[in-house]
Amino acid sequence: MPLTMTPRNANAAASFGEKASSYEAHAFVQTRAAQWLAQWLPSATDAGRCLEFGAGTGLLTRHLVDQVEHLESSDIEPAMVEICQEKYPSATHCVRDAWAAQPEDRGQWDLIAASSVLQWAKEPVQVMQHWRELLKSDGRILAGFFIEPSLPEMFAVTGGDSPLIWRNDEAWRAVFASAELEIVRMETDERRYHYPSALDFWKSLHSTGTAVSRKISPSQMMRFFRDYELQFRDAQGVYATWTLCRVELKASS
């Protein structure tokens, strides 16, 4: 059964922005990811200028705003930036493309931070090179993102026919090395999350930036929901497994 899904990226920003007002109601996995990443934030006395990419409505911003001297929170979607600005007015807010080179800011930042964003990069080595260029000589990158094996249940039901392709721990280590970044520390965390039904799981994906293609027929969707419910339900409900990685990086010497 082909299920065509599009992860959040620049091309899908408009549809993602339409969900800005309801995003956090469905983003409990992303909320947990931001909380886990925030445990590695530097103390207020060590933090200077921080640039946050893919801030969305501010799940990580809420942790950064009191920990850094100057925070610029950014997202590619203006509707998300507007909501984040309303919630955290003490930070600077702007629209930025996390994947693009930004030579005007080269060597200006003590910390680059991003949560639940990097997994969508189609050219991760190039992106990490761009981020490295933004750092001061002793600057750091702090990122949290989803890796393989995330959502193995969905892949089992669909027969692996989905463009949601996760890189594993080893692949990300190779990305960082190719971008001339040194790993200061890196950890993974696998967690199972429960949903009332397969439909609720699907709505959660859709509401947090994964768009469902209109090529999926009603009969295909009903088959997906039925098979998911049969295979991946326990006493707490339908479940999905997410594997999160957090990493602290610095430029290689």
Q: What is the strand tally?
A: 10
> What is the overall shape?
globular
Helix content: 25-40%
What does the oligomeric state look like here? single chain
Give the N-terminus to C-terminus distance in angstroms.
49 Å
As for the number of domains, it is 1
Unreliably modeled segments: 1-15
Which value, in Å, is the CA radius of gyration?
Answer: 18 Å
Tally of DSSP helical segments? 10
The CATH first-level class comes to Alpha Beta
- Rounded mean pLDDT score: 87
Series of secondary-structure elements, N-terminal to C-terminal: EHHHEHEHEEHEHHEHEHEE
CATH topology: Rossmann fold
Name of the CATH superfamily: Vaccinia Virus protein VP39
Main sheet?
Answer: 8 strands, mixed
Structural class by helix and strand composition: alpha/beta
CATH architecture grouping = 3-Layer(aba) Sandwich
Q: What fraction of the residues are assigned to beta strands by DSSP? A: 25-35%
Concise summary:
With 253 residues, the protein is an alpha/beta fold. The chain contains ten helices and ten strands. Helix 5 (78-87) links the parallel strand 3 (70-75) and strand 4 (92-95).
